[in-house]
């Protein structure tokens, strides 16, 4: 009975999986054009006031996040009907967002296939330890994990490491086409940055691009983090793991103000996206609103999402995320019971 309901729920996504070419082209126009326009205005504002330039850079960062959502859809072949068109646009937007298209497509596909599976962690996801794993870990591994989960490391240093360093290298075992795509994007990034530095000076380039990169990068990691790290999430071992439950219960509905929802390409409807990655971002809200079972998933708001910063470990016994202090307290209780 449960399996049948899950099958029907996946089938209900089918009408929303069809790409609308006009909608895709319009989203491309209303995203990329404003981004370049704001970048140029931010540069021109340097001679007036850096505060004005910074304010424009903040808005431009929002459009860069929206550009990443287009890149993200291309990785799922859901932005255009033609797979080659998705690859071309994905590569071009990968240059803007500093992401290697083919490599990230591989890692992200693995993430979708293994999300919330305790036995298949480690590719395309955020590092998660269970309470038991943390308690039995070495001091060095605990320190590494605490540093990794520190907000400054995750949301400030994280984007710098991932986007500027990690994304520049191919993964082990990558095929020739994937490696070439990474090299191509790396070359294009260096070329574009070099031309801009030559044209406007490296100081001006960094003053404009630096804030855009850091703000957009931090926002992107925050969105990924918050939509898989909330108290009553879902994690199971491979034998008990179920795809639909992982999608609907292990991914949150991040209810954002309309402007932020638009800038983030509706990615707040993350439960819909994980249930059916082929649904274009501009149809996620419609799919959510027209599918009653999806309207009862875990909903997180801007205010309540802040509390997720305290969740560090997955408690397998209580089926929820807990903090380091709470994990230590639970371990003592369980030890006393034993």
Plain-language structure description:
The structure is a single chain. With 338 residues, the protein is mainly alpha-helical. It has one domain (2-337). 63% of the residues lie in helices and 4% in strands. The chain has 16 helices and five strands. The chain has helices at 2-11, 21-44, 50-75, 83-97, 101-114, 131-136, 139-149, 151-165, 176-200, 202-226, 243-249, 258-263, 270-275, 284-289, 302-305, 324-337, and strands at residues 129-130, 253-255, 299-301, 313-315, 320-322. The strands form two sheets. A three-stranded mixed β-sheet has the order 1-4-5. A two-stranded parallel ribbon has the order 2-3. It is globular, with a radius of gyration of 21 Å. The protein starts with a helix and ends with a helix.
Separate helix tally: 16
Overall 3D geometry? globular
- The share of residues in extended strands comes to under 5%
The computed structural class is mainly alpha
What radius of gyration results from the CA coordinates? 21 Å
Overall structural domain count: 1
For the largest beta-sheet, the strand count, sense and barrel status come to: 3 strands, mixed
Ranges with pLDDT <50 over ≥5 residues? Answer: none
In helices, the fraction of residues equals 55-70%
Instruction: Tell me the span between the first and last alpha carbons.
Output: 38 Å
Mean pLDDT: 93
Record the strand order, biggest sheet.
1-4-5
Q: SSE order, as H and E?
A: HHHHHEHHHHHHEHHHEHEEH
According to DSSP, the number of beta strands is 5
């Amino acid at each position: 009975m449960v399996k049948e309901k899950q099958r029907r729920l996946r089938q209900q996504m089918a009408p929303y999986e069809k790409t609308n070419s006009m909608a895709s082209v319009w989203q491309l126009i209303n995203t990329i054009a404003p981004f370049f326009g704001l970048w140029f205005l931010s540069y021109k504002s340097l001679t007036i006031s850096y505060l004005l330039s910074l304010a424009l850079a903040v808005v431009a960062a929002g459009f860069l996040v929206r550009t990443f959502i287009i890149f993200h859809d291309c990785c799922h072949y859901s932005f255009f009907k033609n797979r080659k068109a998705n690859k071309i646009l994905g590569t071009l937007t990968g240059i803007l967002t500093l992401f290697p298209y083919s490599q990230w497509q591989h890692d992200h596909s693995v993430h979708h296939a293994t999300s919330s599976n305790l036995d298949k962690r480690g590719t395309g996801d955020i590092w998660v330890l269970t309470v038991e794993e943390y308690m039995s870990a070495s001091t060095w591994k605990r320190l590494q994990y605490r540093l990794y989960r520190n907000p400054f490391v995750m949301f400030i240093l994280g984007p710098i490491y991932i986007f500027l360093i990690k994304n520049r290298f191919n993964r082990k075992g990558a095929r020739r086409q994937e490696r070439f795509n990474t090299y191509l994007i790396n070359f294009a990034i260096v070329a574009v940055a070099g031309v801009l530095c030559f044209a406007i000076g490296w100081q001006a380039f960094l003053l404009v691009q630096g804030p855009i990169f850091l703000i957009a990068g931090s926002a992107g990691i925050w969105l990924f983090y918050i939509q898989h790290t909330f108290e009553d999430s879902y994690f199971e071992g491979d034998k008990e793991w179920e795809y639909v439950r992982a999608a609907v219960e292990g991914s949150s509905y991040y209810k954002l103000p309309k402007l932020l929802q638009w800038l983030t390409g509706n990615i707040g409807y993350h439960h819909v996206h994980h249930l059916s990655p082929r649904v274009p971002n501009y149809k996620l809200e419609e799919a959510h609103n027209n599918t009653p079972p999806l309207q009862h998933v875990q909903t997180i708001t801007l205010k309540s999402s802040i509390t997720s910063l305290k969740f560090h470990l997955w408690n397998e016994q209580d089926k929820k995320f807990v903090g380091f202090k709470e994990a230590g307290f639970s371990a003592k209780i369980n030890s006393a019971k034993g």
